[in-house]
Structures are given as structure tokens and as C-alpha cells.
């Protein structure tokens, strides 16, 4: 192994010296600037007074910034943000209640029909959202659940449960059988073993599943726009959508709302960067 | 350097842990297992199978807004399907869906692959910069779509301003307001949305290609392009199949981007099957016809799901 390593190291050193490394970093920064430009442009517009936004030449930096947009955004969208917060938190709880026991049963207890269940979740992610929305709307209408946060929690959970089961199952499969067997020999029940042995060991997967469930529910637009008819019951995605429809010229407040609605994602990226990367690489999916 | 090499080899060889051949005889243990997965089974039945069945049934019913009040939705056979197929916009909608999907996939994949190759070199700040590229992927599509709507604005949008200044265009392009440009505009934004996902998955695939292959090829005098053409592309094929089929399944059902930017307009010029189904159900309140279009989408999804499962079968069996 050491021979290959040395050769490799030699190749690397010849290929990327310090100068080329710096050039790569410069190119990477340029790529990042292009890819993230829409976000900067949103931040910029959220700080500019509306009069500067409709000028013929764009204002590139918010030197004469104003927080007016944020004030208006909070006053018109504050309640929508709270609804989104509640719905997303509720979705996380529901998803964990279903996915954690299922993943334990599949990965550690080898429940009969496990392959079929895993397969069902794999396929379930491919059902077009608009089909689900159509059926959920008629069902919610019959059950009197339209405009109820509960309907949104139930609908949003369908975006998250398959992913959560798959990622938790993969993690729990890696927990050595000896650990849970030792707990069982000590007289712990299956539930107790799950809660005090398996869960702590697969903490990372639980965090990842929760984070992504929160994000998926927070970002949901299709179920939100179909299952809420009353404006005062709408989560923030629908709030923004209807706000643009009504105040298209007021880009300042619209963009401020956009920035506020991106905060959960930004916080997650900073606080839990390694979990996010883990979630994406383990096949996280999004509509 | 040698540590990273070892680390990477360890990461690639440390496949999923062996499932541990435990023999659990007593029936009691099995029942406990069943109890743990029972909620998930009920969930699959209630939240995936039921909506699926209900949509297929609605496709054969004259299900309109009055059905909610009267509770009556008469069965009309294939009527909904024939009405949808004879809708003046159906052909255009299918064509839009194909163009939107093909355009999105081709560019997402090409750009994602280029970025994955670029970021698989080691250079200062490479890791953090790569993670930051994921930001667009994490934002709610409603938010980034709104930002794009502002960028693509005909008069005040920055894209037109820049294009005018570098003389690429002579007059402002009405990206979202003309029947000629709207499909291009929504495809462009959807490409931007999909690049990070493609990059991350392809980056993962690149990491699992043994570095020794490249070294051997270099020693044999292969240049950069030859190494890419004869090592990277062939060895990346399984991951490519997964990315493209998953991308297909998710692009066909894209809803948010189009709704925020154009609502499928103007005059249906950026309508895809997904927004068409939404419009039928939730704007025209023709739920039966909306379900019929949705069911056509299910058909498309089933075809590509089979392709996807074929492509990943070997990997999943290896993982077991």
C-alpha cells in the first residue's frame, strides 16, 4: 500500500501545486458566486426601498438600505410563519413516531415482509404529488379537515416518512446485534431496548431524518395551496405566493418575506452541516 | 496525504454492516417485530395506497364541485380521459412536459457532472465551498422561485439588464410574459434547482472510483480527457443511471417552480402535465379530469420506476 500511496502523493504534488490550488479556489468561488447569485439578489432587494427597485439600472449593493420590507413582511406574514412552524414541528413528531419503530422492526427484529415494506416506501416516493393532492383534497373535504393544520401535517408527512424509514433503517442495521442482545438478556423489553440502546447509537440518523422532515414540511407548497382555502390558515409558502399575486410591485416586502422563510434552511446548514451532507448523499429526495 | 488515501479506502470497503445472522425461533419475538412495523403498514395503506386507489377511481367519475355537496359522482367510464385527450391544449402540454424534462435533465446532469469532477480535486476551501453549493437545494422552492421571478422581470430584472449591457440582446426579453420564452425560463430555473442534487450524487460516485486506476492510466500516458472518457464515464454508469432516472421521475412532477414563475402561462405556453392536472382539479374544479391527467402521470412514473429499480437492483443486492 505504501508504494501506491507514495506514487499517488507524488502525482498529486506534481498536479496541484500551491499556485494551481489557489487558481482552483478562485474558480470555485466564481462558480459559487454564480450559483448563489439569486439568493444575494433576493437579500439585496429585501433591503432596498421600492423606489430603487424599479429604476432602470439595478442597484447592486444596498447602501441606502431599509428594514421597511422586513417590518411589513413580519406584519403580513408573521401568522403564516407561525403556522408553518407548527405544521413542520408536528410533521417531525408524526414522522418519527412512525419511522423509528418501523426502522427498528425492519433492521433489528427482521420483521416478516420487511423487504416488501421497504420496497413500498421506495415506490411511494415516486407517486406524483398532484395525484396525492387531488385525493387528499377530496378526503379532507369529506372529513371536514380543510384549512386544518392537522390535514397539512398528515399530508406533509407523506413527503418525509419514506426517506426517514430508509435512512433510520440503514443506520440501525449498523448497530451490532450484541448491543441489543445484551440489553434483552438484562431483561429490558424491546421498546426499552429501542429507546435506551438503539436510538442513542443511531442519533445521527434520527437528527438527519428530523431535520429533513422539518425542511420538507416547511417548504411544501402543493399540499399547502390545495388544502388551505382560507388565507388566515395558510402556511408561509402560500402566504408568499398570494402576496406576490396581490402586491407584485412591492418586491421589497416580497423578498424580505423570502429571506425570513429561508431562515430555517440557513440555520440548519450552519448548525448541522454534516447531517445535511449525510442526508443528501443517502439519497434524500425532493420534488 | 497517506491518511486520506487510507481513509477513503476504508470508507469504500466499509460497506453496510453484515446483517448479523441471528436465529430468532420463538413466535413471540416475531410478533413483537410485527407490532413495531404495523403502524408503518397502516400508514402505507392509508397514505399511499388509498390516495392512489382513490385517484384511479376518480378518473372514472364525473367528480366536480357539486359532488362535494350532493355526495354523488356518477361513473362515466373513460369519458374523462377522452375529454382530456381531446382538449385543445393537451398536445402542447405533453410536448412542453417532454421539452421541460429533457432540457432540465440534460443540463442539470452535464453541469452537475462538471462540478463534481471539478470539486473532486483537492484545493484550499474545496470542502466548505462544495457544501455551500447545496444552499439552493435546501431553500423552499417558493422562495427561490420568487427570487427568480424578480431576476427575470422584463423591465426591472437584472438578467435583461446584463444581457442588454453586453449586447447579447437588443430588446428586453419578456421571459415570463411571452408565449415564446416562458418554457425556456422555467426550464432554466429548474436546471438551477437541480444542479446541486446531481453534483452531490455524482461526486459520491466519483469518490468510489479507485484512484489507482487513474494513476495506472497516467503512467500509461493517458491524458485528462482520455482518463475521463475511459475511466470516469464507464465506472460512473451505475450512478448515472440512478441520477437520470430519479431526475426524470422528479422532473416530470415539478410543480412549485412553474406555479411560482408562470402558473403554466401565458396561454398554456409553460403548462406541463402536472400543472395541467392541478388546473383541472383546483381551478376548474373538474376533479375527475384532474385525476385522469394525474393517472397518466402515474403511468409515466411507473415506467421510469421500473427502469430505476432495474438500474439499482444490482446495487441493492450487493448492499444486502
Automatic annotation (TrEMBL), chain A:
It holds the Pfam family BPD_transp_1. It is a multi-pass membrane protein. Its main location: membrane. PROSITE patterns: ABC_TM1 (PS50928). It comes from the Bacteria. One of its GO terms (biological process) is transmembrane transport. Residues 81-272 form the ABC transmembrane type-1 domain. The chain crosses the membrane at residues 21-43, 81-104, 116-137, 149-168, 205-227, 251-272. Belongs to the binding-protein-dependent transport system permease family. This is Carbohydrate ABC transporter membrane protein 2, CUT1 family.
Automatic annotation (TrEMBL), chain B:
Residues 94-308 form the ABC transmembrane type-1 domain. The keyword tRNA-binding does not apply. PANTHER family: BLR7065 PROTEIN, SPERMIDINE_PUTRESCINE TRANSPORT SYSTEM PERMEASE PROTEIN. Belongs to the binding-protein-dependent transport system permease family. GO terms for biological process: transmembrane transport. One of its GO terms (cellular component) is plasma membrane. Keywords: Cell membrane, Membrane, Transmembrane, Transmembrane helix, Transport. It is a multi-pass membrane protein. InterPro entries: MetI-like, MetI-like_sf. This is Carbohydrate ABC transporter membrane protein 1, CUT1 family.
